[in-house]
Amino acid sequence: MWLTDAQKIGVALTTFGVGFMLLGVMLFFDGALLALGNLLFLSGLTLIIGPHKTFYFFARKQKIRGTVCFFGGILLVFLKWPFVGMIVEVFGFLNLFGDFFPVILTFLRQLPFIGNVLNMPYIRDVADRIVGSRTSVV
User: Fold this and answer.
1) How many CA atoms within 13 Å lie on the side-chain side of 7?
2) I need a surface site. Which of 51, 76, 115, 128 has the fewest CB within 10 A?
């Protein structure tokens, strides 16, 4: 799969956004880093899938609770309530992107070292329960 130049920039912006958010959480919920991470994450997501698809992703009727919580959390971070904002934002993020977690887990299980760890007996059961993936009977 080839990416356009805009999509490559979007991947970089999204990566930096997640990095800034993690750094902001590690530095005791630094509001400036969290706000910068949120802006970079949203702009990167928009460049990856396009503005039209981004709007319709967040405007879906079945995901409205996640959208409101996600953007409400971002607003709380901008209004200098970083701890509460991140809690609300994580709740919205899980509601919005929770459908992708089984796909991510399947991909991680195919990686060399991480896959071996995730396929260990007890870790496999816990990861399946957390992600909510269903195991096949066959």
Assistant:
1) 7
2) 51
19: number of Cβ within 10 Å: 14
The whole-model pTM stands at: 0.83
CA angle 128, 34, 57 (to 5 degrees): 55
51 with 31: CB under 8 angstroms? no
Instruction: Report d(CA 7, CA 2) in Å as an integer.
Output: 9
pLDDT score, position 132: 81
How many CB atoms within 10 Å of residue 118? 18
Mean pLDDT score across all residues of the chain = 92
Q: Strand ranges (DSSP E) for 1-138?
A: none
Rounded to the nearest 10°, the torsion over CA 29, 35, 36, 40 is 120
Q: How much is the pLDDT for 124?
A: 92
Ranges of residues in the chain whose predicted pLDDT is under 70: 1, 133-138
CA distance 20 to 30: 10
Q: Which two tokens stand for residue 36?
A: 């910068």
Q: What is the DSSP letter of 27?
A: T
**108, 131 contact by CB (below 8 A):** no
